[in-house]
Amino acid sequence: MKLTLSVRANHLKNVAGVMKGTSDPFAVITVLPMDLSEKPHILGKTEIVKNTLDPDFVTTFTVDYNLGSETKVLVKLYDHVSKGDNISMGSTTFEIGNVLGSKGSMRTKKLKDNRGTITIKVEELKDFGHLKLKLGGVELKNRDGWFNKSDPFYEIWKKDFGGNVSQWNVVHRSSYIKDDLNPVWELDHLDLGLLCSGNRDELLLLKVFDHEGDGDHKLMGETKTSVNHLVSTMGSEGLTLLRKGEDTGKIIVHVAEIIESGAEEEDIPVQAMSNVQIGVSTPSVNPPQKKTGTSFVDYIRGGCEISLHVAIDFTGSNGDPRLEGTLHYIHRDGSYNDYEKAIKAVGDILLKYDSDKLVPVFGFGAKYDGVVNHCFQCGPDAEVREVDGIINAYRQTFASGLILSSPTVFTEVIQNSAARAMSAQGQAFEEGKQKYTVLLILTDGAVSDVEATARCIDAIDSAPLSIVIVGIGNADFGAMQCIDDSSSDVDIAQFVKFNDYKDNLRDLTSAVLDEIPKQLEKCFASRGVLPNPPEVLDEEEEIALEPEEEEEIDLSIAFDENGNIIY
């Protein structure tokens, strides 16, 4: 999936120097490689915002994200200095999955040494079409003194659903026109996904400023509007600008035309809302790929949580756990066996989407008091917290008096998990929320009754549940693949062989979780359950996370005399 990433910073430390005014910040965004042998990928830099320590950057960036893979980005701030000799203002890293799973899909981190905070927000990039817009001003009130005329430009602002409910952020900025109180700005092509998230009735603010070289632009007037309002206003007497309640001129809509998603039009430069600077030329990007339906990201941004259930195979074919080399052997040096590696790889990803991070851990295939149990609790607690809790519960099971036995049956585990998923969803719906569940089954062999297992999966297809089966060890897992294939009609089960990805756990999580987003979408859509509106993060909730020790990553980014990044 493709996400758009936007950046703002607050309370930055001024590094301009004595008698040199206030810093002119800009940010450079870099995707960090998970493999240290690979090179970082610089996405680009934002525009320069002059004379401020609280920049809200207009520039957005496109990031590829896969549920099963970690994607880390480095945000590094600079104070713009002529001839490319820019001064670092601090940096921090964000993991995109953590941001996406946070309330409002937004996350704030503190910079080291009390140098302020950086906030990023992510949204899915969808093709809602674009707006052809050409505006002009009529009899704007001069803000440039008796002997000069203002240099007007306009900005469009929308309410930021990732931050304080009352906070507005810039999403488009025009070029400025010198010495003209009746300006006609260039025709712009604005992406509706970035402009209004596809909601053409969303309230927007249109502000007109007098451009100043030092960045201290003077407000000439503002008005409330929307995309549909702009379209309906085309050719009319225009929109009245107000400043402090006083009429300060009008905005005339010369062109406001919506180009629908998928419509073809030659040579359309769609604005990326990413003007590098206020000037006569602005960069453009190609239109995003067409994607207009509700999606996994829509459900996550609406607060849908993903619960993780874990079920572990304790059949005798795993070998005596006291003997080194067997699948359940607990290493004395603290390193993980393959069961634990799979738990950590999948848990680290999915628990980002669960606020309480509580996980029930089940076992199957072991005898207690001479009776084979196909679904029992691992560890002393009904639910454990985070990955460490799962692994501790797994290890504590070996001290519970069990005897590894047979056969391999996990229909009871599936039924138990499905019932819990239905109950959790029902409770969430009562609270106006949404919840989905992923059952991770770890096994060293094929199930004893393939047909019974397939029937069980078919029977619980109405549950908000995905089943991922990971095969541990070198057994013949052909029957497990049959279960994956046989459940194609309901498409909630998937099998992955651990040894195929043993040397690259990033690829394991990608393979394991690849189908989860589509399964979640299909589950809710088939029941007519639409995503909730994006969650709003109250000001009191916007807590800046403390910087982590490993986060001050110094990438040697060079700039030429024009301020361009030298790759």
TrEMBL record:
Residues annotated as domain VWFA: 307-516
GO molecular function, one term: calcium-dependent phospholipid binding
Record-linked SUPFAM superfamilies: C2 domain (Calcium/lipid-binding domain, CaLB) (SSF49562), vWA-like (SSF53300)
The organism's place on the tree of life at top rank: Eukaryota
GO cellular component: plasma membrane
Domain C2: 1-109, 114-241
Pfam families per record: C2, Copine
InterPro entries: C2_dom, C2_domain_sf, C2B_Copine, Copine, Copine_C, VWF_A, vWFA_dom_sf
Signal peptide: none
An individual GO BP term: cellular response to calcium ion
Record key words, sorted: Repeat
Keyword Nucleus applies: no
Family, as annotated: Belongs to the copine family.
Full protein name: C2 domain-containing protein
Organism of origin: Chaetoceros tenuissimus
